[in-house]
Amino acid sequence: MCIRDRRKYNLNVPVHMMVILMLFNTEDSLTYQQIANATRINKHELDRALITLSMHKIRVLTTTLTKLNKNMKPDDVFSFNTGFSATHSKLKIQASKSSSGERDPHSTRSAIIEDRKHEVDAAVVRIMKARGELPHNQLTSEVVLALTQRFKADPRDIKKRIEHLIEREFVERVPGDMKVYRYRP
To answer: Is the separation of the CB atoms in 147 and 120 below 8 Å?
Structure first.
């Protein structure tokens, strides 16, 4: 890629973006519809590629779209950015993450908690087996310490897992003091 200051840039881009950029070898500006017809890339991928090329840090293309309004219309115009400049001659442009095709944060958080339940259970049982009896706060802090290398354990989740282990009869509460747990062999 060569720009008006005659400096050459080596772009490392995904295939869809390269196909789009190759269209600008013969045309100065193209509409969204013209790009879609010429490339036959599906709408979702085309939108991602065009947003990345025209609205992110490295703006190879210019457009009439704004960051607030990223909805593509058939008559939106994209042009090659003749004023493009960068400090490095080799540039890597990766496709932006699209919110429409991704999981929502709530379901992702739920999946992570579900995956970590067994790790928390194992840590609690290991610690209780080694110690025999422990007060709630000390058990929680030791579990957090044991799991710090893997992830940051939430004390609320640890409490839920202790309750689950009590139901499954791996751990019991000491009859005289409800804040102290005992391992059940």
So the answer is: yes
Calpha distance 171→35 (Å, rounded): 64
Question: Taking the model in full, what pTM does it have?
Answer: 0.50
| Contact of 17 with 49, CB cutoff 8 Å | yes
Question: Using CA atoms in the order 135, 150, 125, 118, what is the torsion angle rounded to 10 degrees?
Answer: 120
Mean pLDDT by groups of 10 residues along the chain of 185 residues: 63 88 88 92 87 80 69 82 79 66 66 83 93 92 91 89 92 90 89
Q: Give the residues across from 91 on adjacent strands.
A: 11
Buried b (16+ CB within 10 A) or exposed e, 100-135: eeeeeeeeeeeeeeeebeebbbebbbebbeeeeebe
E strands present in 65-183? 77-80, 90-92, 133-135, 171-174, 177-183
For residue 13, give both structure tokens. 């881009």
